Amino acid sequence: MKAFSYRTALILLALLVATSSFIYSQKLDMDLVTGLKPRNIGPAGMSGRITSIDVVLEDPSRMYFGSASGGLWFTDNAGDTWTTLFTDQPVASIGVVKVNQKNPMELWVGTGEGNPRNSQNSGYGIYKSQDGGITWKVMGLENTRTIHRIIQHRDDPLTL
User: Which residues, 6 or more positions from 48, have their beta carbon under 8 angstroms from its beta carbon?
Assistant: First the structure.
């Protein structure tokens, strides 16, 4: 009688495990899922990689998400719905978003993602909004291709 090879034994073991999972798996009651409808739950769809997140500390349901190629997203209900911000700017790549915690309506955005890779997107400087992201002003560094960190002085929010 010929002995089983190591490879044959592994194949038989894999078949045994796969077969037993079908035999002992639970049946799905389709009545539990027939009423479910697909829904969009966030900005991760077509906007790509999330590169930065900042939260308003006094109201954690207000969050800002910057994406590598899909702009800036905002929620004020802990992610149930999302609004795009920064849509009228000449660049869509967000490297960092920073909320001034002493004045949460003041936002800073550094453009250009800081994650070098084959699809890295360049930016066009640093921007500031004083109305929660409705309007933006270029604050400089337009020749900087990637800004992926903003550190704000704790006592002087104009010092970055």
Answer: 67, 68, 69, 70
pLDDT per residue as tens digits for the range 20-45: 666 666 677 788 778 888 776 665 44
> From the centroid of its chain, how far is CA 96?
11
Helix (H, G, I), strand (E, B) or coil at 2: coil
Nearest Cα neighbor of 63 from 113, 97, 114 is: 97
- Which is nearest to 51 in space by CA: 144, 132, 137, 122? 122
Query: How far apart are the C-alpha atoms of 47 and 55, rounded to whole Å?
Result: 19
pTM tops 0.70: no
SS3 of residue 52 by DSSP: strand
The 8-class DSSP code of residue 94 comes to E
* Tens digits of residue pLDDT in 144-154: 888 989 998 88
